[in-house]
Design goal:
Number of helices of chain B: 8
Mean pLDDT of chain C: 91
Oligomer: heterotrimer
Largest sheet of chain B: none
Structural class of chain C: alpha+beta
Number of strands of chain B: 0
CATH architecture of chain C: 2-Layer Sandwich
Distance between the termini of chain B: 102 Å
Low-confidence stretches of chain B: none
Largest interface: B-C, 46 and 61 residues
Number of domains of chain C: 1
Number of helices of chain C: 7
Helix content of chain B: 40-55%
CATH topology of chain C: Alpha-Beta Plaits
Radius of gyration of chain B: 33 Å
Order of helices and strands of chain B: HHHHHHHH
Shape of chain C: globular
Distance between the termini of chain C: 57 Å
Low-confidence stretches of chain C: none
Chains: A mainly alpha (395), B mainly alpha (156), C alpha+beta (243)
Strand content of chain B: under 5%
CATH class of chain C: Alpha Beta
Shape of chain B: elongated
Number of domains of chain B: 2
Order of helices and strands of chain C: HEHEEEHEEHEEHHEHEE
Largest sheet of chain C: 4 strands, mixed
Radius of gyration of chain C: 21 Å
Mean pLDDT of chain B: 90
Number of strands of chain C: 11
Helix content of chain C: 10-25%
Strand order of the largest sheet of chain C: 9-1-11-10
Chain lengths: 395, 156, 243
């Protein structure tokens, strides 16, 4: 059998969850992380991160819209996926995910964005013409009430939605972790730490993504980057990253020390097939290097130029590291036999439905959606037609 | 109703959600298969659909209703508990239409599949090294597969 | 044929009728069979298995199993006395065409036929998001292939590697315990084709079934009992090294 070492149960030779299922937790993770960054400002009053608040919300929406696509593409019968909503199986983590996703998309993110941008939407519906005017008028839902009292109500309701949104974001991504962590048949997945590790790595990746998007957009718009804001974001990212890394190492140490029946098999896998993606990419390049770089910034006074460079490098490495983590979980969990007697190989195809090109497309798509969203709902304060509270810094 | 003053847009938003939920419930009621939930959280009719899949192996009881002579010979020998289709393959087609000739099984392949000596087989099971045992002569020259003991009648 | 709007309107009633039959499903096929009177399982006697592969071939012929995938397969274990928990296992093409001849040497050999364990607490049916796989009232784990969306979550959840995604139907597939046979009073294709009686279909709700006497008088094991799946495929004479 090509690509097989030792003994695999015959049905295990080909992998059933491909690179698309790697992207799915990665993308939902970015959503949860971006939303939690946005809520920092609103609930915990971290003023410094305010410049990224609306951008973080739109980033979360853009990625959330794409999140179910890799799932759809990997299904044998995508046309039957509506059954998840019609006859959800109560004991299935995956079925419940459909509802958690819908709740998060419709009840949290869309409502929060609508409330926050409503004044802009109303203003735009009066200043634009043609189809754009029609679009904004539909978005106003026929109400042009932007009186001070109405906006005050929106602010209060929005605050409450954000408050619900934080546990929802945890739920959304914790659930993705539970989908893997609850599979007792698979020792590489089965761990109560899995949802927690997923949430923390999600926050790290989402924060890194918003930070990079913010820096990139500021550069495109030829505007100065608010360094106080980026410094703060990087700091938060480092703190959460340290927690995430500690949890991941706790899981690893626990596995090594307990050394149960699966250990020999998994240990061999980590030292061979996953050596590059797990040890080199995920742990060294994707975790230790970015944590160390940002920690260095906290100790040594770097110039603004250097800090920017460090943030871009560590942000990018973080994104790569978290993607590698998803890969190691999803693909790694299928490379060894449940008999613990052998290993198979995963070869990613190029142009198939579950291939590399589709994956790259799926990673670019949220950025395209984000570009469109930013055009429709400009998150920049000076572009909005109604006066908003003056931004704390920058511009 | 001063509490609700300037909150009209929120009610419009709520209305959108209510309409969406109602539409979902209506579609759900129309589209979920009737037998879903009959026995549990699945389509009850699926059970009878699976039960009505076509047969390929007829079962030795069916063979024995016509081939009484073979059945009798077989029941006296070492292969009494080896069912007809274990060697002859699936023959439901032949039952439906007896004019379909099942053909003769290839003894050269079949006998050794079970009886070629291997350390992996249980010791109680009769095994031979084919080359040594018959020197290339077909098994059926001496053994009747329906009752393989040589004294019982030899080739047929 | 070009379908105009007028055609479409004419087609609608027909489509509605067709959809109605889809919703209703096909009627009961085995009128003399009462599901609640049975609780199916299987007995596998390792000491009788000769590794001929008849069961694997019979299963593929009866159930149209695609090449490279297996509803049942046979493994050959080789355990030497210095590595009692590290068996060497092979299953060339699922054991479909038998096994290479083994020469007498250190250690022991034996064959282990595998199939869906029709677990009473099956993790695969637990995780199915839509209710496309289920335990029937007579204890058989089945798949509604017209409802399955092919997410493969059940494949991941099975500790025994008994499930796969059918390459052309693109839905989950596995052993049905020949449900279309046992509901007609026949045995499964694998049991029918087994020359030594190493595989026996068992109805645990039938007090006359010899399984009861056998379970009482033999040392019986199930696969991966630590998974707490409550399997209904019982093994006699199973070695501890079997995974």
């Amino acid at each position: 059998m090509p690509g097989v070492e030792g003994y695999m149960y015959p049905n295990e030779v080909s992998l059933y969850w491909s690179v698309l299922i790697v992207l799915y937790p990665y993308i939902t993770g970015l959503v949860a992380g971006a939303f939690i960054l946005a809520s920092l400002e609103r609930i915990f009053h971290v003023e410094a991160v305010k410049p990224t608040y609306r951008l973080a919300l739109l980033t979360a929406l853009a990625f959330l819209l794409v999140a179910p696509l890799p799932l759809q593409l990997h299904l044998g019968h995508p046309e039957r996926s509506y059954e998840m909503y019609l006859t959800p199986h109560r004991t299935s983590a995956m079925a419940m995910f459909g509802f958690v996703y819908l709740w998060y998309l419709m009840a949290v993110l869309v409502v929060e964005i609508w409330l926050d941008f409503r004044a802009d939407i109303v203003a735009l519906s009066q200043t634009t013409t043609g189809w754009r005017r029609l679009m904004y008028r539909i978005l106003t839902l026929g109400s042009t009430d932007v009186s001070e009292r109405a906006l005050h109500i929106d602010e209060r309701v929005g605050w409450f939605v954000t408050l619900i949104g934080i546990p929802s974001a945890f739920l959304l991504h914790g659930y993705v972790g539970f989908i893997f962590g609850s599979i007792k048949a698979n020792p590489w997945w089965s761990s109560p730490l899995m949802p927690v590790v997923f949430i923390f790595s999600a926050m790290v990746s989402g924060i890194a993504a918003v930070m990079l998007v913010y820096m990139a957009m500021m550069r495109l718009r030829r505007e100065p980057i608010d360094m106080r804001c980026v410094d703060k974001i990087a700091q938060y990212m480092m703190y959460i990253f340290v927690i995430d890394f500690s949890l991941e190492m706790l899981d690893l140490v626990h596995r090594i020390y307990e050394a149960d029946e699966s250990f020999r098999s998994l240990n061999f896998m980590v030292h061979t097939k996953l050596w590059f993606s797990q040890v080199i990419l995920q742990i060294c390049i994707g975790t230790i290097v970015p944590i160390s770089l940002i920690a260095l910034v906290q100790i040594v006074k770097f110039s603004e130029k250097w800090r920017k460079a460090i943030y871009v490098v560590s942000g990018s490495l973080t994104l790569i590291g978290v993607l590698a983590m998803r890969w190691n979980v999803v693909i790694g969990g299928q490379l060894f036999s449940k008999s613990f007697l052998g290993y198979t190989t995963y070869k990613i195809a190029l142009v198939t439905r579950e291939g590399l090109l589709v994956s790259i497309g799926l990673m670019i798509l949220p950025l395209v959606i984000l570009a469109v969203l930013v055009k429709i709902l400009p998150p920049w304060p000076e572009k909005s037609a109604v006066s908003l509270p003056a931004p704390s810094v920058g511009d | 109703m001063s509490v609700f003053r300037n909150a009209g847009h929120l009610f419009r938003l709520a209305a959108v959600f209510v309409v969406g939920t109602v539409a979902f419930l209506v579609i759900r009621a129309a589209v979920v298969p009737r037998s879903f939930g009959e026995y549990g959280h699945y389509r009850g009719a699926a059970i009878s659909e699976i039960a009505s899949l076509p047969l390929h192996f007829a079962g030795h009881q069916t063979c024995e209703t016509c081939h009484t002579d073979i059945a009798k010979m077989k029941s006296a020998g070492m292969h009494a508990h080896v069912n007809c289709e274990a060697c002859h393959g699936p023959l439901e087609k032949h039952v439906k239409d007896p004019s379909i000739d099942p053909g003769k099984p290839d003894a050269a392949v079949l006998c050794v599949r079970c009886h070629a000596a291997s350390a992996a087989r249980p010791k109680w099971f009769p095994q031979v090294d084919p080359a040594q045992h018959s020197g290339g002569i077909a098994c059926t020259t001496c053994h009747n597969p329906h009752n393989p003991v040589i004294a019982a009648g030899g080739s047929k | 044929m070009k379908i105009t709007r007028r055609h479409l309107l004419l087609l609608l009633p027909a489509a509605a009728v067709a959809w109605e039959s889809v919703l209703a499903g096909t009627p009961e096929q085995s009128p003399n069979y009462t599901m609640t009177e049975h609780w199916w399982g299987m007995l596998i006697d390792i000491s009788k298995c000769i590794g001929c592969g008849n069961c694997v071939r019979a299963c593929q012929e009866e159930n149209d199993v695609p090449d490279g995938f297996f509803r049942t397969w046979v493994e050959r274990y080789h355990v030497d006395d210095w590595h009692i928990t590290e068996p060497q296992v092979i299953s060339p093409d699922g054991g479909k065409n038998g096994f290479p001849v083994a020469k007498e040497d250190e250690g022991k050999y034996f064959f282990v036929p595998k199939l869906c364990n029709h677990c009473a607490d099956s993790p695969c049916t637990q995780v199915c998001p839509v209710g496309a796989t289920f335990i029937s009232p007579d204890g058989v784990v089945l798949i509604d292939q017209t409802y399955c969306m092919g997410c493969a979550y059940c494949v991941q959840a099975c500790p025994y590697g008994c499930r796969y995604i059918h390459p052309t139907k693109r839905v989950a597939d596995k052993c049905t315990l020949c449900y279309h046979r046992i509901t007609k009073g026949l045995t499964t294709a694998c049991c029918e084709a087994c020359p030594t009686g190493a595989r026996q279909l068992a109805d645990l709700k039938n007090p006359a079934d010899p399984i009861h006497e056998f379970l009482k008088t033999h040392s019986i094991h199930v696969l991966k009992p630590e998974m707490a799946t409550n399997p209904k495929v019982f093994y006699n004479d199973l070695d501890g090294s079997v995974r």
